[in-house]
Amino acid sequence: MKRILVLGAGGFIGTHLVLRLKEEDAWVRGVDIKVPEFSTSAADDFVLGDLRDQVFCRSLFDHAPDEIYQLAADMGGAGFIFTGEHDADIMHNSATVNLNILDCASEADVPRIFYSSSACIYPERNQEDPDNPDCREHTAYPADPDSEYGWEKLFSERLYQTYAKNRGIEARIARYHNIFGPLGTYDGGREKAPAAICRKVAEAENGGSIEIWGDGTQTRSFLYVDECIEGTLRLMRSDCTVPLNIGSEEMVTINNLAKRVISISGKDLRISNIDGPTGVRGRNSNNDLIMQELGWAPNQTLDAGLRDTYAWVSRMVSHSNA
Ligand code: NAD
After folding, report:
1. How many angstroms is it from 9 CA to the middle of ligand 1?
2. In the chain, domain spans
3. Quick one: what percent of the chain has pLDDT higher than 90?
4. Of the N and C termini of the chain, which has fewer Cβ atoms inside 10 Å?
5. What is the C-alpha to C-alpha distance for residues 68 and 236, in angstroms, rounded to an integer?
6. Residue closest to 260 by CA, chosen among 298, 215, 217, 306
Protein backbone atom coordinates (compact mmCIF):
# COMPACT_ATOMS: atom_id res chain seq x y z
CA MET A 1 0.00 0.00 0.00
CA LYS A 2 1.35 3.43 -0.94
CA ARG A 3 2.14 5.72 2.03
CA ILE A 4 1.25 9.31 1.27
CA LEU A 5 1.87 12.47 3.28
CA VAL A 6 -0.57 15.35 2.65
CA LEU A 7 0.52 18.68 4.15
CA GLY A 8 -2.25 21.24 4.56
CA ALA A 9 -4.71 18.33 4.94
CA GLY A 10 -6.94 20.44 7.18
CA GLY A 11 -7.50 22.96 4.38
CA PHE A 12 -9.99 23.06 1.52
CA ILE A 13 -8.08 21.30 -1.27
CA GLY A 14 -6.22 19.04 1.19
CA THR A 15 -9.50 17.69 2.61
CA HIS A 16 -10.70 16.77 -0.90
CA LEU A 17 -7.32 15.30 -1.87
CA VAL A 18 -7.23 13.03 1.19
CA LEU A 19 -10.75 11.78 0.36
CA ARG A 20 -9.70 10.94 -3.19
CA LEU A 21 -6.45 9.21 -2.10
CA LYS A 22 -8.42 7.11 0.38
CA GLU A 23 -10.80 6.06 -2.42
CA GLU A 24 -7.69 4.79 -4.19
CA ASP A 25 -6.68 2.77 -1.12
CA ALA A 26 -3.51 4.62 -0.17
CA TRP A 27 -2.41 4.93 3.47
CA VAL A 28 -2.61 8.66 4.17
CA ARG A 29 -1.08 10.78 6.89
CA GLY A 30 -2.57 14.26 6.94
CA VAL A 31 -0.81 17.17 8.63
CA ASP A 32 -2.10 20.63 9.46
CA ILE A 33 -2.07 23.26 12.15
CA LYS A 34 -5.87 22.80 12.36
CA VAL A 35 -8.41 20.07 11.67
CA PRO A 36 -10.77 20.49 8.69
CA GLU A 37 -13.43 23.06 9.50
CA PHE A 38 -16.46 21.48 7.83
CA SER A 39 -15.86 17.72 7.86
CA THR A 40 -13.82 14.98 9.48
CA SER A 41 -10.57 14.13 7.70
CA ALA A 42 -10.55 10.78 5.90
CA ALA A 43 -6.81 10.41 6.66
CA ASP A 44 -5.63 7.24 8.45
CA ASP A 45 -3.50 9.40 10.68
CA PHE A 46 -4.04 13.14 11.19
CA VAL A 47 -1.19 14.98 12.90
CA LEU A 48 -1.75 18.45 14.29
CA GLY A 49 1.35 20.64 14.25
CA ASP A 50 3.14 23.65 12.86
CA LEU A 51 5.21 22.97 9.74
CA ARG A 52 7.27 26.10 10.45
CA ASP A 53 8.82 24.07 13.25
CA GLN A 54 11.69 22.02 11.87
CA VAL A 55 11.68 19.55 14.76
CA PHE A 56 7.99 18.86 14.13
CA CYS A 57 8.66 18.42 10.38
CA ARG A 58 11.40 15.87 11.10
CA SER A 59 9.07 13.87 13.34
CA LEU A 60 6.77 13.27 10.34
CA PHE A 61 9.45 11.22 8.61
CA ASP A 62 9.67 8.36 11.13
CA HIS A 63 8.50 6.21 8.20
CA ALA A 64 9.44 7.87 4.90
CA PRO A 65 6.37 8.27 2.67
CA ASP A 66 6.33 7.25 -1.01
CA GLU A 67 4.86 10.61 -2.00
CA ILE A 68 4.21 14.03 -0.50
CA TYR A 69 1.58 16.57 -1.51
CA GLN A 70 2.57 19.98 -0.11
CA LEU A 71 -0.51 22.23 0.07
CA ALA A 72 0.16 24.07 3.34
CA ALA A 73 0.36 27.85 2.93
CA ASP A 74 -0.68 31.02 4.71
CA MET A 75 -3.40 31.81 2.28
CA GLY A 76 -6.70 33.54 1.56
CA GLY A 77 -8.74 35.42 -1.01
CA ALA A 78 -8.35 39.05 -2.14
CA GLY A 79 -9.41 40.32 1.30
CA PHE A 80 -6.36 38.59 2.77
CA ILE A 81 -3.59 38.66 0.16
CA PHE A 82 -4.18 42.03 -1.54
CA THR A 83 -4.56 44.35 1.44
CA GLY A 84 -0.82 44.38 2.27
CA GLU A 85 -1.53 43.82 5.97
CA HIS A 86 -0.44 40.18 5.97
CA ASP A 87 2.54 40.32 3.59
CA ALA A 88 5.29 39.54 6.12
CA ASP A 89 3.32 36.59 7.51
CA ILE A 90 2.55 35.25 4.05
CA MET A 91 6.20 35.41 2.94
CA HIS A 92 7.70 34.15 6.20
CA ASN A 93 5.22 31.41 7.04
CA SER A 94 4.82 29.80 3.63
CA ALA A 95 8.52 30.02 2.72
CA THR A 96 9.53 28.51 6.08
CA VAL A 97 7.16 25.57 5.56
CA ASN A 98 8.55 24.90 2.10
CA LEU A 99 12.19 25.22 3.24
CA ASN A 100 11.61 22.83 6.15
CA ILE A 101 9.71 20.21 4.23
CA LEU A 102 12.07 20.01 1.30
CA ASP A 103 15.04 19.56 3.59
CA CYS A 104 13.36 16.80 5.61
CA ALA A 105 11.93 15.06 2.55
CA SER A 106 15.20 14.98 0.64
CA GLU A 107 17.12 13.76 3.73
CA ALA A 108 14.55 10.97 4.11
CA ASP A 109 15.01 10.03 0.41
CA VAL A 110 11.37 10.62 -0.49
CA PRO A 111 11.24 10.01 -4.25
CA ARG A 112 8.66 12.62 -5.29
CA ILE A 113 6.89 15.72 -3.97
CA PHE A 114 3.98 17.77 -5.33
CA TYR A 115 3.91 21.53 -4.77
CA SER A 116 0.82 23.73 -5.14
CA SER A 117 1.88 27.01 -6.70
CA SER A 118 -0.56 29.60 -8.00
CA ALA A 119 -1.68 31.66 -10.98
CA CYS A 120 -0.69 34.62 -8.77
CA ILE A 121 2.92 34.14 -9.96
CA TYR A 122 2.12 35.60 -13.41
CA PRO A 123 3.33 39.14 -14.18
CA GLU A 124 0.91 41.96 -13.61
CA ARG A 125 1.68 43.45 -17.06
CA ASN A 126 0.11 40.39 -18.76
CA GLN A 127 -3.12 40.75 -16.80
CA GLU A 128 -4.07 44.39 -17.37
CA ASP A 129 -6.57 43.77 -20.19
CA PRO A 130 -9.57 41.92 -18.72
CA ASP A 131 -10.45 40.46 -22.14
CA ASN A 132 -6.98 39.16 -23.02
CA PRO A 133 -4.94 38.02 -20.02
CA ASP A 134 -1.87 35.94 -20.89
CA CYS A 135 -1.10 33.16 -18.40
CA ARG A 136 0.89 30.79 -20.60
CA GLU A 137 3.46 29.06 -18.41
CA HIS A 138 6.54 30.50 -20.14
CA THR A 139 5.35 34.10 -19.56
CA ALA A 140 6.16 33.85 -15.82
CA TYR A 141 9.53 35.56 -16.50
CA PRO A 142 10.68 38.31 -16.30
CA ALA A 143 8.78 38.02 -13.04
CA ASP A 144 6.45 40.69 -11.65
CA PRO A 145 3.63 39.12 -9.59
CA ASP A 146 1.10 41.62 -8.22
CA SER A 147 1.26 40.26 -4.64
CA GLU A 148 3.82 39.05 -2.11
CA TYR A 149 1.82 35.82 -2.05
CA GLY A 150 2.73 35.41 -5.74
CA TRP A 151 6.40 36.20 -5.09
CA GLU A 152 6.60 33.57 -2.35
CA LYS A 153 5.01 31.01 -4.68
CA LEU A 154 7.51 31.84 -7.39
CA PHE A 155 10.44 31.62 -4.96
CA SER A 156 9.15 28.25 -3.74
CA GLU A 157 8.68 26.93 -7.28
CA ARG A 158 12.36 27.63 -7.80
CA LEU A 159 13.22 26.06 -4.44
CA TYR A 160 11.48 22.83 -5.46
CA GLN A 161 13.26 22.90 -8.80
CA THR A 162 16.68 23.32 -7.14
CA TYR A 163 16.03 20.39 -4.81
CA ALA A 164 15.03 18.33 -7.85
CA LYS A 165 18.28 19.37 -9.55
CA ASN A 166 20.69 18.99 -6.61
CA ARG A 167 19.09 16.77 -3.94
CA GLY A 168 17.54 13.90 -5.86
CA ILE A 169 13.87 14.49 -5.04
CA GLU A 170 11.55 14.77 -8.04
CA ALA A 171 9.19 17.75 -7.96
CA ARG A 172 5.83 18.23 -9.68
CA ILE A 173 4.52 21.79 -9.64
CA ALA A 174 0.99 22.99 -10.39
CA ARG A 175 -0.13 26.59 -10.77
CA TYR A 176 -3.71 26.46 -9.49
CA HIS A 177 -6.20 29.02 -10.81
CA ASN A 178 -9.04 29.91 -8.36
CA ILE A 179 -10.22 26.57 -7.05
CA PHE A 180 -13.73 26.44 -5.58
CA GLY A 181 -16.28 23.97 -4.27
CA PRO A 182 -17.95 22.63 -1.12
CA LEU A 183 -15.95 22.51 2.14
CA GLY A 184 -14.09 25.75 1.30
CA THR A 185 -13.89 28.77 3.60
CA TYR A 186 -16.90 30.97 2.89
CA ASP A 187 -16.64 33.68 5.58
CA GLY A 188 -14.24 35.25 8.07
CA GLY A 189 -11.99 37.23 5.66
CA ARG A 190 -9.99 34.46 3.95
CA GLU A 191 -12.77 33.31 1.60
CA LYS A 192 -12.37 33.61 -2.17
CA ALA A 193 -14.81 35.13 -4.67
CA PRO A 194 -17.08 32.15 -5.54
CA ALA A 195 -17.63 31.15 -1.89
CA ALA A 196 -18.02 34.80 -0.79
CA ILE A 197 -20.59 35.45 -3.52
CA CYS A 198 -22.50 32.24 -2.68
CA ARG A 199 -22.63 33.35 0.97
CA LYS A 200 -23.79 36.88 0.12
CA VAL A 201 -26.52 35.52 -2.16
CA ALA A 202 -27.59 32.91 0.40
CA GLU A 203 -27.83 35.59 3.11
CA ALA A 204 -29.63 38.21 0.96
CA GLU A 205 -33.37 38.84 1.24
CA ASN A 206 -35.27 38.36 -2.01
CA GLY A 207 -35.54 41.75 -3.76
CA GLY A 208 -32.40 43.08 -2.04
CA SER A 209 -28.82 43.46 -3.26
CA ILE A 210 -25.32 42.04 -2.79
CA GLU A 211 -22.02 43.93 -2.73
CA ILE A 212 -19.25 43.04 -5.19
CA TRP A 213 -15.73 44.45 -4.82
CA GLY A 214 -14.47 46.60 -7.69
CA ASP A 215 -16.39 47.61 -10.82
CA GLY A 216 -17.20 43.95 -11.52
CA THR A 217 -15.63 43.96 -14.99
CA GLN A 218 -12.45 42.26 -13.73
CA THR A 219 -12.25 38.73 -15.18
CA ARG A 220 -11.25 35.34 -13.76
CA SER A 221 -11.74 31.65 -14.37
CA PHE A 222 -12.73 29.21 -11.62
CA LEU A 223 -11.99 25.51 -11.38
CA TYR A 224 -14.17 23.06 -9.50
CA VAL A 225 -12.22 21.21 -6.82
CA ASP A 226 -12.84 17.70 -8.21
CA GLU A 227 -11.12 18.64 -11.46
CA CYS A 228 -8.28 20.27 -9.50
CA ILE A 229 -7.70 16.96 -7.69
CA GLU A 230 -7.87 15.02 -10.95
CA GLY A 231 -5.26 17.32 -12.54
CA THR A 232 -3.07 17.16 -9.44
CA LEU A 233 -2.97 13.35 -9.47
CA ARG A 234 -2.39 13.21 -13.22
CA LEU A 235 0.49 15.68 -12.95
CA MET A 236 2.00 13.87 -9.95
CA ARG A 237 1.94 10.57 -11.85
CA SER A 238 3.40 12.06 -15.04
CA ASP A 239 6.97 12.71 -16.18
CA CYS A 240 6.34 16.45 -16.48
CA THR A 241 8.99 18.43 -14.59
CA VAL A 242 7.89 21.96 -15.53
CA PRO A 243 5.18 23.94 -13.70
CA LEU A 244 1.72 23.47 -15.25
CA ASN A 245 -1.45 25.54 -15.03
CA ILE A 246 -4.33 23.66 -13.45
CA GLY A 247 -7.32 25.87 -14.12
CA SER A 248 -10.39 26.46 -16.21
CA GLU A 249 -10.38 28.40 -19.50
CA GLU A 250 -14.00 29.55 -18.99
CA MET A 251 -13.35 33.21 -18.19
CA VAL A 252 -16.13 35.36 -16.68
CA THR A 253 -16.39 38.85 -15.21
CA ILE A 254 -16.96 38.94 -11.47
CA ASN A 255 -20.37 40.57 -12.02
CA ASN A 256 -21.22 37.72 -14.38
CA LEU A 257 -20.13 35.20 -11.76
CA ALA A 258 -22.47 36.91 -9.30
CA LYS A 259 -25.32 36.89 -11.84
CA ARG A 260 -24.89 33.14 -12.35
CA VAL A 261 -25.05 32.47 -8.60
CA ILE A 262 -28.11 34.73 -8.28
CA SER A 263 -29.79 32.84 -11.09
CA ILE A 264 -28.99 29.45 -9.43
CA SER A 265 -30.50 30.74 -6.17
CA GLY A 266 -33.74 31.72 -7.90
CA LYS A 267 -33.72 35.05 -6.00
CA ASP A 268 -34.26 38.50 -7.45
CA LEU A 269 -31.15 40.46 -6.38
CA ARG A 270 -29.31 43.54 -7.59
CA ILE A 271 -25.50 43.88 -7.70
CA SER A 272 -23.93 46.84 -5.98
CA ASN A 273 -20.29 47.42 -6.98
CA ILE A 274 -18.24 48.93 -4.15
CA ASP A 275 -14.56 49.73 -3.48
CA GLY A 276 -12.49 46.75 -2.37
CA PRO A 277 -9.31 44.78 -3.11
CA THR A 278 -9.54 43.12 -6.54
CA GLY A 279 -6.07 42.08 -7.76
CA VAL A 280 -5.23 42.08 -11.48
CA ARG A 281 -7.80 43.19 -14.10
CA GLY A 282 -7.94 39.84 -15.89
CA ARG A 283 -6.79 36.27 -15.38
CA ASN A 284 -7.57 33.06 -17.21
CA SER A 285 -5.91 29.67 -17.37
CA ASN A 286 -4.18 28.69 -20.58
CA ASN A 287 -4.40 24.92 -20.96
CA ASP A 288 -2.26 24.33 -24.07
CA LEU A 289 0.72 23.02 -22.10
CA ILE A 290 -1.23 20.73 -19.75
CA MET A 291 -3.01 19.27 -22.79
CA GLN A 292 0.32 18.74 -24.51
CA GLU A 293 2.02 17.24 -21.42
CA LEU A 294 -0.80 15.20 -19.88
CA GLY A 295 -3.25 14.77 -22.78
CA TRP A 296 -5.90 16.09 -20.39
CA ALA A 297 -7.38 19.43 -19.33
CA PRO A 298 -10.35 20.40 -17.17
CA ASN A 299 -13.63 20.66 -19.10
CA GLN A 300 -16.50 20.87 -16.60
CA THR A 301 -18.69 23.98 -16.95
CA LEU A 302 -18.56 26.70 -14.32
CA ASP A 303 -22.33 26.46 -13.77
CA ALA A 304 -22.17 22.78 -12.78
CA GLY A 305 -19.61 23.50 -10.05
CA LEU A 306 -21.45 26.63 -8.91
CA ARG A 307 -24.70 24.70 -8.40
CA ASP A 308 -22.99 22.27 -5.97
CA THR A 309 -21.12 25.06 -4.22
CA TYR A 310 -24.19 27.28 -3.80
CA ALA A 311 -26.19 24.34 -2.45
CA TRP A 312 -23.47 23.62 0.14
CA VAL A 313 -22.86 27.27 1.17
CA SER A 314 -26.58 28.02 1.50
CA ARG A 315 -26.98 24.93 3.73
CA MET A 316 -24.09 26.16 5.90
CA VAL A 317 -25.61 29.66 6.11
CA SER A 318 -29.03 28.35 7.11
CA HIS A 319 -27.50 26.04 9.75
CA SER A 320 -25.53 28.90 11.27
CA ASN A 321 -28.66 31.09 11.34
CA ALA A 322 -30.79 28.32 12.89
P1 NAD B 1 -6.37 26.44 2.68
O2 NAD B 1 -5.99 27.70 3.36
O3 NAD B 1 -7.75 25.92 2.85
O4 NAD B 1 -5.35 25.27 3.08
C5 NAD B 1 -4.02 25.51 3.46
C6 NAD B 1 -3.80 24.78 4.77
O7 NAD B 1 -2.43 24.97 5.18
C8 NAD B 1 -4.67 25.33 5.91
O9 NAD B 1 -5.49 24.30 6.44
C10 NAD B 1 -3.66 25.82 6.93
O11 NAD B 1 -4.06 25.62 8.29
C12 NAD B 1 -2.44 25.00 6.57
N13 NAD B 1 -1.24 25.61 7.09
C14 NAD B 1 -0.83 26.89 6.90
N15 NAD B 1 0.30 27.13 7.58
C16 NAD B 1 0.61 25.97 8.22
C17 NAD B 1 1.65 25.59 9.09
N18 NAD B 1 2.61 26.46 9.44
N19 NAD B 1 1.67 24.33 9.57
C20 NAD B 1 0.70 23.44 9.24
N21 NAD B 1 -0.31 23.76 8.42
C22 NAD B 1 -0.37 25.00 7.92
O23 NAD B 1 -6.03 26.65 1.14
P24 NAD B 1 -6.43 25.76 -0.12
O25 NAD B 1 -7.41 26.56 -0.91
O26 NAD B 1 -6.77 24.39 0.29
O27 NAD B 1 -5.06 25.78 -0.93
C28 NAD B 1 -4.11 24.72 -0.86
C29 NAD B 1 -2.85 25.15 -1.57
O30 NAD B 1 -3.14 25.50 -2.93
C31 NAD B 1 -2.18 26.38 -0.95
O32 NAD B 1 -0.79 26.22 -1.00
C33 NAD B 1 -2.60 27.51 -1.86
O34 NAD B 1 -1.67 28.56 -1.83
C35 NAD B 1 -2.65 26.81 -3.20
N36 NAD B 1 -3.56 27.50 -4.13
C37 NAD B 1 -4.91 27.49 -3.88
C38 NAD B 1 -5.76 28.16 -4.75
C39 NAD B 1 -7.25 28.19 -4.51
O40 NAD B 1 -7.96 28.80 -5.30
N41 NAD B 1 -7.77 27.57 -3.45
C42 NAD B 1 -5.24 28.82 -5.87
C43 NAD B 1 -3.87 28.82 -6.09
C44 NAD B 1 -3.04 28.13 -5.23
Report:
1. 9
2. 3-179+223-246, 185-221+251-282+302-321
3. 92
4. C
5. 10
6. 306
Helix, strand, or coil (residue 174) = strand
CA of 207 to the centre of ligand 1 (A): 36
Backbone angles phi, psi at 2, to 5 degrees: -70, 135
Same fold? 3-179+223-246, 185-221+251-282+302-321: no
Averaged pLDDT, 101-123: 97
CA of 137 to the centre of ligand 1 (A): 22
pTM: predicted TM-score of the whole model, two decimal places: 0.97
Architecture of the domain defined by 185-221+251-282+302-321: Alpha-Beta Complex (3.90)
What is the reported pLDDT for 76?
81
At 22-44, the pLDDT tens digits run: 999 999 999 999 999 999 999 99
Superfamily of domain 3-179+223-246: NAD(P)-binding Rossmann-like Domain (3.40.50.720)
Mutate to test the pocket of ligand 1, among 71, 118, 157, 225 (most ligand atoms within 8 A of CB): 71
In this prediction, residue 14 carries a pLDDT of: 98
Contact 5, 51 (CB under 8 A): no
